[in-house]
What we know:
The complex is a heterodimer of chains A (183) and B (506). By secondary structure, chain A is an alpha/beta fold. Chain A has helices at residues 2-25, 31-42, 69-76, 112-120, 155-160, 167-172; strands at 46-47, 57-62, 85-90, 101-104, 125-128, 140-145, 148-154, 164-165, 174-176. A 7-stranded mixed sheet of chain A has the order 3-2-4-5-6-7-9, sandwiched between helices. The N and C termini of chain A lie far apart (77 Å). In chain B, the strands form 3 sheets. Chain B has a 5-stranded antiparallel sheet with strand order 2-1-5-4-3, covered by helices on one side. The relative contact order of chain B is 0.06. Chain B is rod-shaped and about 195 Å long. Chains A and B meet through helix 2, strand 7 and helix 6 of A and helix 1 and strand 5 of B.
Amino acid sequence: VAVLKAPRSLALVSLLAVAITAGGARRAPTEREVEAAFLCSFAEYVEWPDHRPEAALALLVLGDDPFGALLDETVASRPQHSKPLDVRRSRRLEDAGGAQIVYVSDSEKGRLDEVLAATGRASILTVSGLPGFARRGGVVGFVLEQRRVRFEINQGAAERAGLRVSSRLLNLARIVETAPPER
Amino acid sequence: MAARAPSLRRRLTLLSVLTSASTLLLASAWFTAYAVHAYRGTLARHLATTADMVAFAAAPALEFRDERAAGEALAALRAEPQVTAARIYALDGEPFASYGEGGDARFAAAPPAARRERMDFWGGSFEVTQRIGDGRRPLGTLYLRAELSALRRRLVRYAQITAAVVSSSLVAALAIAWVLQREISVPVLALVDTTRRVAATRDFGVRAPAGGGGELAELVDGFNEMLAQVERRDERLRAVNRELRQRTEELARKNEEVEAFVYIVSHDLRAPLVNLQGFGRELRLSCEALTTLLDGVPLAPATAAAVRVILDAELPDALRYISASTAKFERLINALLELSRTGRRELRADAIDMQALAAATVDSVRQQIERCGAQVVVGALPPARGDETALGQVLGNLLGNALRYLQPGRPGRIELGGERWDEMNRYFVRDNGVGIAESAQRKLFQVFQRFRPDLADGDGIGLATVKRIVERHGGRIWAESVEGAGATFYFTLPSAATTTASGGAP
């Protein structure tokens, strides 16, 4: 029995070792990485009223780009058959008109109302990590919840923009309404 | 009847019961196999649908790394009690969320993403692997594991139902078979009973009771018809037997009459013969006296010469003829008496040493043998059962014949022998004498038949007597011969080992 047991326990030890090494090698993704991934994934759960499905969706990073190469890598490493994305970067608000998704960088905090006013009428999915972005009229806002990246969705803003957001995405989001400015 | 009934009845009943039992078991086996197959199909479809739904619900949760939402999607499985384990794996194979026993270490490795179903009947599980993804977009893998305990419970129930159905059906089949087998067994057993009664009592008037239908009724009718035929034949046979016995008795009576007649005739003929012999002798004495008397009487020379011719030649010649004829007559009468005695005398049934008897017979004619210069060989003769005197007569007669009919001028050779022959013994007396013409062979053993009187004198009764003796011993006699080359007389006798006495009807 002892002889029989030896290889089994050995196998167990080696299995444990593999598990530990694997766990060690895999580091938790950073906040920024998660945001980049989510940003790309939103496209799958939203429909734009006047957009042909086979055409690439334009993703515009407005303002200072916090992702850098990370966003391009994320776009490239998405699952097969994901909707094609065309990543653009610009500081000019006028460029937002041609995009389907606009990520509002933290650098735009100062002119947020202006940005929202510019994008709110068009069929643009606005996404931002700025605090209270969705309550102020943005469509999707990242929030940190127990150190995990979650998101809020302003359903009214989405409807006003003519976007159809999948209920399956809404299920995962915290739903918020546009609130009057605090100040 | 009850004592010997079981065989057929039990066999017929067993036949029906076994037939129904095997049919039922086979049907149950097929039904169970079908049930398992159907259950597997149903389970597979059901789990596939469930997996589809869970995978669909879990897709965004997986995409947005929302473990709570993924757990909720999996929690829908609570409605499926047979699903005991579920786990969601990310695209890179990393476990993402689990349900039930899905958190076990044994589910740590991601299963292949391709849609797969696997049933491990004896392990008691059914596994489904389902891709998670939106449309054609792969996001991860869902693994479901269902317990087959429900199937097992169902199978146990099937087994119980089958056992109940089969056992109750068997009881019913037994009862029905027991009732139905009477249809066949009752007429057959009645038939068997009838045959036994017929065999025991030899009463062919018995009839089997009509019963059954179709071939059985035919069988009974045929059997009865056969019995009727046997009965008729038996009756006819008995009548023929009766007639035969009557005729045999009649024949025996007639035969006795003939024997008596022969005896009486022979006996009565003897008296005048004795007179003839006596007065012949008297006449010779008278002749001699006359010759003596005439010796002293002077007669004319012519007369004397004539008288002398009469007295010395003619009268003695006549007297010699008379004497010879009467002697022959006497022999004939004696032979006839002997034949008649042979037919009537009670024969013994002793074990006879035929070899010794043959040797003694040869000895008794030793002088005659030496006179002929013949060579007589006695071979091995197996012992027979019969009457010693009569058999000595047979051997003596045949040996005498052989000696009498030797070819003149050829060294005679006579052989006596015997051997076992079927149930009997066959003996033979073989000579190299003149042989017997084919035309004569048929009449050889008839009374007063004489052959080649030129060679030997005989009365023509010897072979008839021999035939009578052999036949009274239950044997047979015949001769084989090539004319001019010799003859062989064969006769059969019961072996000494045979205990049944011979001496049948004369």
